[in-house]
Amino acid sequence: MKPAADLHWDELENSDVKDLLASLKAFIRSLTVDKSQADDIFQETVLRTKKSKHLSELDSPLAYMITVSKTVLYDFQKKNVPQYVDIEEVSIQSDDYSPSNTYLNQQKLALVDSILLNMSPLRREIFVLRRVDGLARDDIARRLDVSVEVVKKHLTRAMVEITVKLEEAGWLEDN
Q: CA-CA distances (angstroms) from residue 129 to 42, 140, 163?
């Protein structure tokens, strides 16, 4: 491959640039199994990299592009994860107390119990203290000797995990 100083975006027919892009695409495909997401990440990485006027000054353009692609992947994943879930909006039980609904509610609660058991002990304890025992975030933070931000983070992640698992199991209704 030519030295980095010889790489120019204006010469995309250049075999060195093609090799660089092929290596980048192979790396991105190793990060995700979703081919369309890999293609999107590749395109966004190339676009962001092309905006860099200093590409030809880099010692390793591929290393730079790999770093950019990791940032792009992180941005894509961040968009797809709910940042906040309100427990009040997630209905675990139905108001209908027929035998079939009672059975379904028991199944749903068993799934939530299983999800809670698979959480880290700290996350599970924070969730139970807040949602079952009704303690305030500040009280939980003092009791567990952690910051309020840690409590908020674990509550949010617990709710996201519960919501996602309930959706996967088909227990949440589409709004």
A: 44, 7, 19
